[in-house]
Structures are given as structure tokens and as C-alpha cells.
């Protein structure tokens, strides 16, 4: 075999990154493989818009079917995003004996189990490193580099847009709306930022990485998701006074035969290495029983970082193809027969620490009423800040708790918010600073 023939569906940002990487690093890639990676067809509905990477006109087509129907193409790369027609393209490619590569986290979060099972039945492989954390080789690290470990914790920052917004709110005191508008002007956020700021994009990635880390099928529907739209600069400021930084975290944790899978704004200690991750960068902290704590850090999106991850998959598949094998490493790292549908802990049963901000009238006995309700629901207060700054006619009372059960917290806050001395809904932010999350200082 002198070359691996590749068909690309989707000539957008990531597709351009893939093409540029293949062109600029062709010598190094050949030295690693001993065969060429040749893109022989590129399909996109829009062939007129100028791109930063050119393609010879005779390779271009508006029909993905031209790639799927070409028996000489060995690997189909899908970079159009969305569920359909991306899913159909991948399934047809596998059915016709082609290996596939995708960066489509939404597709895999919803249909990954089906796609992996079909690929195995077809004797073909699926590469998807670029679907989680862009240029960071997170999935390969979990699937292969940490194969000797039993993981207990995987958590981190998996969305650069949200992290950029929170960085600007923290360092410059911007309100969410201004930080988002700036992110959109700079190209970090889409015109419709829903997937990023509402935590859905992060949840897609966590569903994939969590399944791989703990040997369970992908279960996106069981991930608890909460975004950053309601974060107020006042909460960022109070968090800093307590020694915390606010991040949108993806958290997967194994304990007592259950998994926690949750995405939400989270306070982490200032000295934790994740607290120093700024701007549009991603970082993931993993704890394994043999390796201890490690962290992976880098650009989680962008043309070249994500394009690099796509090409890494192409190199892996090409190596297997030259040996005449497929699925040398199972897609999720565990043999399908050995995967277990591990129960996901309901959010009501999660135990963690909490930050509360109440807006209450400045009257005697207010603090005792609030603390009384918390105490009646087994919630112990660890720290309190009460200042005379007015917020909509009330003053803020901020509390940090010791560990508590989520359902107890929810019940308490419902009762507190009904008090005639409280104005507006209480702000709740969870805290992660348990010993099993220990990591080096930044």
C-alpha cells in the first residue's frame, strides 16, 4: 500500500486545519507511517466561499455521495457537525467498507454507542479524538496512556468559550452579557452561543470522555447540565474573597458503584492548577489509582489544534490498515463485552459543598432564620460574609457550607426563598475541593 486515500465531507474551519496539517507536515507523517495520506475528494455544499486552504478544483464536489460511492476511498472524514445527515454519512461509509473519522461530539454523545457497534460488525474503525478537547490528546490518554489505571475522578474545563467569558468576568468585572458580546466579536463564541454557555457542548464531551474513562456506554441523557447565563459579577467577587475561582466544570466521579456525571458552574480553590486556566484554553484533571493526579492542558478548539487531532486519527487508522487490522483498541477503550452500564447517581443524591448568596432585608434575626432552616435540613455552615451593599433594596448574605446532600439543599432554599425577608431567588454554586481532587498548585 503506497497511499491511504481519504474523502473529506465538510470543508470548513476544521477541514481546513486537517488539510493544512497534512500538507505542511507531509514529510513527518510519511516518516512515521511509510505511506502517504492523500485527500482525493472534498465535499461541501458551499464551494464558492474563499478558504485559508485551497483545494484543487477537480477534487471538489457538492455531493457527499460521490465520496461514499467511490470504492477507492479508504477513510471518510466527517466534519459537517450536527446529527443528520452526518450520522447517515458515517453509517453508509462503514457499510461500504470504509473507516471513518469524525470531530462530531454531538453525534457521538447521542448515537456513539450505535455507531461503534455498527463499525465493529462491519470490521471497521472509528476515530474521534477531535470530538473532545480539540488539540489536547485527551481521549488517547484515557484510552491508552492510562490503560493500567482505575480512574476515580475526571474533571475539567472543556469549553473555551465559557472559560473565556468567566475569565473576563473574573479579571475585569464584566457582566455576563458584555463578556459574551466580546467573545462573539473575537470569534470565540457563535452568534447563537446556546451550546457553549448553557453547558450542552461540555456535556456532550463529558458523556464521551466519562464513558471511556469508566468503561460504560455513552449516556448523554444522564448528564446533569447547568450553564453560566445566570452568573453575576457579584458572585465572582465574593468567590474571590473566599479564595475561590469560578469555572464551568465537567465532572465525572466513580464512587460506591455509581457515577456522577455533571456539568455546572463550580468554585475551585485558587491554588488548584485548574484555577489558573485562562481565556479560551481547556484543561482536564484526572486521578488514577496507579498514576495519581495528572493534568492535560491546551487549546480545545480552533482550526489547527482540532485539525491536528483529526490527522492523528488518520495516522492511527493508517497504521492499522498497513497491518491489515481494525479496532486494535476498542473505541471506548474497554472490550464491548466487558463494559457495564454503571448507574448514574441522581443529582438529588450528590454530596458536595455549596456557595449560597441570599438577598435579604437588613433586619435583626435574618441570619438566624436562614441558618435555622439550613440546620433543620442537615446543612452545616462553614463561613459567612454579610455586608451592607444594597442589591435591589436588600443586602447580600453569602455562605459556604460543609458537605451536604443536593436534595436537602434544594428543600432548604425553597423554604428560605419563601421568607418575607428574602428578595429574589437564592444563588447556588457548587464547590469542588475534596481530597480526591488534589492537584499540584499552579
Describe the structure.
- This protein has 442 residues and is an alpha/beta fold.
- It has helices at 13-24, 26-33, 65-68, 86-95, 105-122, 138-145, 160-172, 176-185, 194-197, 200-214, 233-241, 303-322, 366-376, 406-417, and strands spanning 3-9, 36-43, 60-61, 75-78, 99-102, 126-127, 151-157, 224-225, 244-255, 258-269, 281-288, 292-299, 351-360, 381-386, 395-401, 404-405, 427-431.
- The longest helix is centred in the last third of the chain and has 20 residues, at 303-322.
- The model is unreliable at 435-442 (pLDDT under 50).
Structural class: alpha/beta
Beginning-to-end CA distance, first to last residue? 48 Å
Total DSSP helices: 14
Q: Could you give a short account of the major beta sheet?
A: 11 strands, mixed
According to DSSP, the number of beta strands is: 17
Radius of gyration over all CA atoms, rounded: 24 Å
Shape: elongated
Please mark out the parts with pLDDT under 50 across 5 or more consecutive residues, or reply none: 435-442
Helix content: 25-40%
Kindly estimate the percentage of residues that lie in beta strands according to DSSP.
Answer: 15-25%
Overall pLDDT level:
94
Primary descriptors:
alpha/beta, eleven-stranded mixed sheet, six-stranded parallel sheet, elongated, 24% strand, 17 strands, 14 helices
Q: What is the topological layout?
A:
Elements: E1 3-9, H1 13-24, H2 26-33, E2 36-43, E3 60-61, H3 65-68, E4 75-78, H4 86-95, E5 99-102, H5 105-122, E6 126-127, H6 138-145, E7 151-157, H7 160-172, H8 176-185, H9 194-197, H10 200-214, E8 224-225, H11 233-241, E9 244-255, E10 258-269, E11 281-288, E12 292-299, H12 303-322, E13 351-360, H13 366-376, E14 381-386, E15 395-401, E16 404-405, H14 406-417, E17 427-431
Parallel strand pairs: 1-2, 1-4, 2-3, 4-5, 5-6, 8-10, 10-17
Antiparallel strand pairs: 7-9, 7-11, 9-10, 11-12, 13-15, 13-16, 13-17, 14-15
Helix pairs in contact: 1-12, 4-5, 5-10, 7-8, 13-14
